[in-house]
């Protein structure tokens, strides 16, 4: 499940890459731009093999997950390589969840002992621990420093959370961390070997943790005792793509179409950068601005939901529709007698752009056991008179679509585009 | 758990210590007295009067936690918290806020592990808990049916 290797087999990885036409065009474009292919000009001589194209993508798979997960539905995975900073001592971890609903890299410990990632320490020299906050509960573990490699992109010396690794000797989460929910610190609980948070924002906490201490976030730990601390932005667990030297303004997550009956696996792509290369141009995609919370608007059956979001880490489309039948076994999902064809309108938070989105909902109970990708959905709590309702566009939204995630720091702020 | 008001901080601490020894929750909130959020770092903004259009018979205690999350406790005429809600960039101390019902939330989370759950909904005969959102944008609410003031619409819990 976890492979350790020392150094990068760049040549073999590149050789294994499909020589697709876009890749060849990119190679050509880079050669022309950099004029570093060598040997040019001599007509008639044997052409010099081109320099391998810089790879700004990683494959995404939707499958049954790591063995310890005990099965998965609608979970997108990538492999992530982490290295001891500045060295070629590296480990590649497979089945890391690609999550547009969180920020930063979290890996379930233990990593290989030879990796020996250095601990991030507080101003007083204490080991830093973190409480990762999720709706389902918390992930507790040490914050360490690593170079994060995705394709040929590298985020150097980044803070990552090692879930389940004690900062100092604090194996148990501090009480205020445990008080936000249940312990999600295992492969079984997460359904993944880690989480790669590549959503709209850069840090998992942001300015609030710089301005003061926020409970259930960062801690300085001495022995088994931890106390809340503030944390500079640069040391917070952060979206690693935003820390790449190039292609750092966003990502594109693309999955193939899925038939109504579902799919046993999917092969998609996570591409780094937006509009920085030929393979990540916005093209005809429309931008949808979000508000300060990262929300945009969805109108479904006349109800305006202004706390809506797109979340590849949600394994269904979650929205309220009292006319749909909730499954008898799993109240998390709808179980219509036959597949439903539905639609909703997504709108930018400022109302400047909108699009009709058609989608299906099929019964979870009717899915064969080997299906790992399907148009499933479920209810999302009860209605709010205030209008603060959410349509959670989970993974099925990505089926047959390239979804651009424009990070904060873009000229017009964070955005979705599709 | 009911807890009469008007105690001093020392009395609170003593009571909490005694209750801890008795294996009872220290900060029962939903279904009990309003929470004190454990320490003094909370900016308790104010007690909102019930809106004139709302059914009479409750107050809202609104607090802003240090990270910016807003927490509301809906208190009925008997001084009992019949509903709570939260909204903001960080999860509040739900153990404190939900009191004896916190375990219902964690049990539901643990019952259906695996990635991809952006919300947890607990529906018991008398208690409903809804928690949703994602990193840096959470919201949730919970209420006890048997404690609701007459005519109260739970959709109005902000």
Structural class of chain A: mainly beta
Trace the largest sheet of chain B across and list its strands: 1-2-3-4-7-6-5
Our estimate of the beta-strand percent of chain A is 25-35%
Q: How would you sum up the major sheet of chain B? A: 7 strands, antiparallel
Helix/strand layout:
The complex is a heterodimer of chains A (418) and B (158).
Chain A: E1 2-6, H1 10-16, H2 21-34, E2 57-62, E3 76-83, E4 89-99, E5 103-108, E6 127-134, E7 137-150, E8 153-163, H3 175-178, E9 182-183, H4 187-190, E10 194-198, H5 208-211, E11 218-222, E12 225-228, E13 250-255, E14 266-272, E15 287-289, E16 296-300, E17 303-310, E18 317-318, E19 340-347, E20 354-361, E21 377-378, E22 392-393, E23 401-406, E24 415-417
Parallel strand pairs in A: 4-10, 5-8, 7-9, 17-22, 18-21
Antiparallel strand pairs in A: 1-4, 2-3, 2-14, 3-4, 3-7, 5-10, 6-7, 6-11, 7-8, 11-12, 13-14, 13-23, 15-24, 16-17, 16-19, 18-22, 19-20, 23-24
Chain B: H1 9-21, E1 43-48, E2 58-64, E3 70-76, E4 81-88, H2 94-98, H3 102-111, E5 119-123, E6 127-134, E7 137-144
Antiparallel strand pairs in B: 1-2, 2-3, 3-4, 4-7, 5-6, 6-7
């Amino acid at each position: 499940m976890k492979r350790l290797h020392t150094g990068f087999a760049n040549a073999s990885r590149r050789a294994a890459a499909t020589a697709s036409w876009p890749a060849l065009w990119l190679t050509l474009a880079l050669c022309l731009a950099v004029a570093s292919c060598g040997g040019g000009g001599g007509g008639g001589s044997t052409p010099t093999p081109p320099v391998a194209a810089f790879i700004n993508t990683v494959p995404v798979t939707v499958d049954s997950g790591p063995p310890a997960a005990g099965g998965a539905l609608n979970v997108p995975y990538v492999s992530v390589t982490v290295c001891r900073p500045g060295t070629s001592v590296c480990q590649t971890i497979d089945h890391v969840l690609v999550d547009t609903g969180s920020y930063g890299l979290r890996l379930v410990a233990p990593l290989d002992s030879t990796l020996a990632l250095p601990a991030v320490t507080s101003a007083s020299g204490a080991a830093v621990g973190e409480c990762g906050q999720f709706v389902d509960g918390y992930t507790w573990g040490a914050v360490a420093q690593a170079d994060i490699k995705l394709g040929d992109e590298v985020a150097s010396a980044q803070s990552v959370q090692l879930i389940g690794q004690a900062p100092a000797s604090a194996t148990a989460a501090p009480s205020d961390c445990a008080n936000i929910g249940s312990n999600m610190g295992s492969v079984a609980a997460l359904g993944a070997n880690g989480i790669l948070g590549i959503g709209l924002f850069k840090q998992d906490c942001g300015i609030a943790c710089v301005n003061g201490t926020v409970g259930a976030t960062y801690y300085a730990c001495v022995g088994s005792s931890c106390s809340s601390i503030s944390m500079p932005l640069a040391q917070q667990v952060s979206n690693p793509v935003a820390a790449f030297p190039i292609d750092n303004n966003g990502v594109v997550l693309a999955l193939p179409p899925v038939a109504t009956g579902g799919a046993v696996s999917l092969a998609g792509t996570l591409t780094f950068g937006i509009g920085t290369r030929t393979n990540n141009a916005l093209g005809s995609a429309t931008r949808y601005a979000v508000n300060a919370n990262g929300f945009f608007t969805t109108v479904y059956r006349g109800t305006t939901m202004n706390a809506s979001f797109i979340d590849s880490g949600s394994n269904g489309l979650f929205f309220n529709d009292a006319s749909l039948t909730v499954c008898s076994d799993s109240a998390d999902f709808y179980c219509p007698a036959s597949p439903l064809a539905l639609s909703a309108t997504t709108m930018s938070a400022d109302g400047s752009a909108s699009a009709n989105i058609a989608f299906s909902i099929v019964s979870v109970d009717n899915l064969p056991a080997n299906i790992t990708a399907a148009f499933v959905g479920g209810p999302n709590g009860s209605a709010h008179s205030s209008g603060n309702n959410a349509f959670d566009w989970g993974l099925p939204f990505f089926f047959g679509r390239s979804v651009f995630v424009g990070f904060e720091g873009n000229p017009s702020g964070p955005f979705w585009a599709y | 758990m009911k807890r009469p008001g008007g105690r001093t901080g020392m009395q609170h601490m003593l009571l909490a210590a005694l209750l801890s020894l008795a294996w009872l929750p220290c900060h029962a909130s939903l279904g009990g007295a309003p929470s004190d959020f454990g320490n003094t770092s909370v900016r308790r903004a104010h007690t909102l009067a019930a809106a004139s259009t709302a059914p009479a018979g409750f107050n809202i205690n609104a607090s802003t936690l240090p990270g910016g999350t807003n927490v509301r406790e809906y208190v009925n005429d008997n001084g009992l918290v019949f509903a709570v809600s939260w909204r903001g960039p960080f999860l509040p101390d739900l153990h404190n806020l939900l009191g004896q019902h916190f375990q219902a939330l964690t049990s539901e989370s643990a019952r259906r592990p695996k990635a991809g759950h952006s919300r947890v909904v607990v529906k018991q005969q008398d208690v409903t808990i809804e928690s949703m959102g994602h990193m840096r944008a959470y919201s949730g609410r919970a209420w006890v049916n048997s404690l609701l003031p007459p005519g109260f619409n739970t959709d109005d819990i902000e």
